[in-house]
Amino acid sequence: xxxxxxxxxxxxxxxxxxxxxxxxxxxxxxxxxxxxxxxxxxxxxxxxxxxxxxxxxxxxxxxxxxxxxxxxxxxxxxxxxxxxxxxxxxxxxxxxxxxxxxxxxxxxxxxxxxxxxxxxxxxxxxxxxxxxxxxxxxxxxxxxxxxxxxxxxxxxxxxxxxxxxxxxxxxxxxxxxxxxxxxxxxxxxxxxxxxxxxxxxxxxxxxxx
Length: 209
Known about the structure:
Number of helices: 3
Strand order of the largest sheet: 1-2-3-4-5-6-7-8
Distance between the termini: 43 Å
Radius of gyration: 20 Å
CATH topology: Porin
Number of domains: 1
Structural class: alpha+beta
Number of strands: 8
Shape: elongated
Oligomer: single chain
Helix content: 10-25%
Order of helices and strands: HHEEEEEHEEE
CATH architecture: Beta Barrel
């Protein structure tokens, strides 16, 4: 990568960081205007001690990607998560991806962990839209095992596979389908993308219950 392209890349990352900071500031300003008694699942139902049970705090879900044809691209990424606070959730899970084009094929696998902050739990409490839609921020760390021969790294090959760690940040909207379930639409930016494993931005649709 040339010095000029590195400068452009740094400027692009700086713009993304500035936009995220502005988004956080605006979102937290809107939080203060929401009804104080509003609680996100599972904190809307509490036991005799005033807190939800461990079982109720757990959630499951993930995302699935399928593409067939000249290029085959299959992605499976289930997660299990836990609500730390009414607005904060963490999750972890394995990830697998199979890619094949007319010239080669490869498989990637690993694990990811993420944290989500629900900056607005229900837009209807701020804007009377009549739908239970929320806005959240998302930060994710993904560790993948890649085939050295397919990705031509390291050179010379010292092992059959190598590991790549990538951090993705962004946000999205959550459409509640019930008390426990929701459909999430996310836009994420990889902070480093040397092998173009991710789109920029990365668009994902996931489901939790």
